[in-house]
Amino acid sequence: MPETTLEIRPGVTIPEHLVGEVRSKLAYVDELIGGAEISPAGDLIHLYLQRKPSADEIQALKEKTNRVVNLMARGVIQPKVEILEDRLDLPLPYRDDPLEALTRRHEIHQEASGVYTLGPLVTRLMDYFETRFLALANHFDAAPYRFPTLIPARYLSRVNYFRAFPHSLTFVTHLRSDLDVIDHFAAHAVADESGRINMPADTYASIETLLSPAVCYHLYFSLADRKLDSEYMVATAVGNCFRYESSNLSSLERLWNFTMREVIFVGSKEFVLENREASRQYMQTVLDEIGLAYRVESANDPFFIGEFRRQAAFQSAFQLKYEIRARLPFRESTLAVGSYNYHQDFFGRHLNISLPDGSPAHTGCTAFGLERLAFAFLAQYGLKRDDWPVAVREGAG
Ligand code: 5GP
Ligand code: ZN
């Protein structure tokens, strides 16, 4: 547990709509920080520290915290939130945090921060939601794909991922191909109580590969430097995704390793926008049958500090992202369980993907986080099947 609290009055007041976004970024300010809170008025920050800081460390913590607040909040204008569907007020039978009951019944097991084993109850729910997503994919005649869990650094670099989301990257390495290094590792390597392996950094090869942060990127990479034979394509895939979230990792709400199902659209601007909208309408009926209390509203991606203001404003101005936000009654808040995205011709231009007429392809995707959807459903309906809406009881029983 963190031992000391540091109180900071930021030079700029954090507007209400940014409080959550700034708080989640404070986790990356310093390794001393185990958690952070911002007062609702946005004028007071509490950093929870792992140990008592020195005077120099306090200075550095204040300076870095103010840097985050300045870059993210100074002069920022609140974007208008556009609400496309609102079923937040559906009556619900459950009010507790399902995590505790799931843990008690050994339905989930935490291996590490943000890494969970899921038992039959959650797995069956996720499998059931998958059948609904596969039906959505079939509705669009989507071609099925399987993508790797690993992703090459050179591709992520080409689409500026290192600029936009450096904080959430997860790197992959292996032992250097040197017999002395491997022999030494085999003879002496152990993971200590903190979980760290007791070997120096030069034991490992330099990094060319990462764990994939999204599913649709793999499709775009497979189309890179090509002219498409047809005017459009629709694909679907499910995959492991990884986003490192530091001390924000918690529960099944924010996992380091999670599963995403996507339906992906590639074609003209009109084609992508029409199909993104058609998939939203299709899912409206599905979410209704599942009995989910949710809202679909405009959103932005969690860009890193320096990139945040410009990129979030851009996404909002061009209506690039809508999220399905499910209600979490136990904390009176919402959680994004899916999103409807339009990337304009960003991937078409950066990866040189062109349509038959030579213009850069536009892309978009409909994406669902399976663990989050299962978690939000359990938070709304509890673990007793008898309390579940009929469609889910029959589909996931
Ligand atoms: P997006 O591409 O919109 O960021 O992510 C698509 C979906 O993946 C989100 O709506 C959410 O359901 C899921 N997702 C994104 N980040 C996380 C995470 O950290 N943990 C979990 N469990 N799901 C996530
Ligand atoms: Zn996508």
CATH superfamily of the largest domain: Bira Bifunctional Protein, Domain 2
Spans of at least 5 consecutive residues with low confidence: none
Largest beta-sheet characterization: 8 strands, mixed
Tell the overall outline: globular
Q: Please, how many helices?
A: 13
State the distance separating the first and last CA atoms: 39 Å
CATH-derived topology of the largest domain: BirA Bifunctional Protein, domain 2
Give the total of domains.
3
Give the CATH architecture of the largest domain. Answer: 2-Layer Sandwich
CATH class of the largest domain: Alpha Beta
Overall mean pLDDT stands at: 96
Helix content: 25-40%
Bound molecules: guanosine-5'-monophosphate, zinc ion
Radius of gyration: 22 Å
Structural class: alpha+beta
> Strand-residue fraction?
15-25%
**Number of E-type strands:** 18
Q: If strands are numbered along the chain, what order do they take across the biggest sheet? A: 4-14-15-16-18-13-12-7
Please supply descriptive tags for the structure shown above.
single chain; binds zinc ion; alpha+beta; 3 domains; Alpha-Beta Plaits; binds guanosine-5'-monophosphate; BirA Bifunctional Protein, domain 2; eight-stranded mixed beta sheet; about 400 residues
In short:
With 397 residues, this protein is α+β, with helices and mostly antiparallel strands. It is 36% helix and 24% strand. Helix 2 runs parallel beside helix 10 and helix 4 (120-139) crosses helix 12 (370-381).
